[in-house]
Amino acid sequence: MIRLLTCTSIVLFVSALLMLAVDARIYNHRGWFREKKYAAVMGWTYCLISVAVIIGLMIYV
């Protein structure tokens, strides 16, 4: 179970970084500012969740 949570949080963190780096740039280039804002909010939320899970696993284990 711990290994599953670790892998899930790493995948979530990588997807958040990709969302912040790639999606926001694509939306900005196309002029979709509302989608850019939502991608940024979701990316930072995913980052915070994944970091919280990783810190929780470090404390638990």
- Count the domains: 1
Beta content: under 5%
Could you give the order of the helices and strands? HH
Mean of residue pLDDT?
Answer: 92
In DSSP terms, counting alpha (H) and pi (I) runs of 4 or more, how many helices?
2
Q: How many beta-strand elements? A: 0
Overall structural class, as computed from helix and strand content, comes to mainly alpha
> In this structure, how is the largest beta sheet organized?
none
Q: Helices and strands in order, then pairings?
A:
Blueprint: H1 2-30, H2 33-60
Helix pairs in contact: 1-2
Task: Explain this structure.
It is built from 2 helices and no strands. The protein has one domain (2-60). It is mainly alpha-helical. 93% of the residues lie in helices and 0% in strands. The protein has helices at residues 2-30, 33-60. Helix 1 runs antiparallel to helix 2. The relative contact order is 0.21.
Quick recap of the structure?
By secondary structure, the chain is an all-alpha fold. It has 2 helices and no strands.
List keywords for this structure.
2 helices; single chain; mainly alpha
